[in-house]
Design a protein that fits this description.
This protein has one helix spanning 2-19. By secondary structure, the chain is an all-alpha fold.
Length: 20
């Protein structure tokens, strides 16, 4: 469960970085 949350955060950061 914790892994899913971490994965979601990492994915969000990657997407945010990609947009910038």
């Amino acid at each position: 469960m914790f892994y899913s949350i971490t994965h979601c955060i990492l994915n969000g950061l990657l997407l945010n970085h990609a947009y910038k």
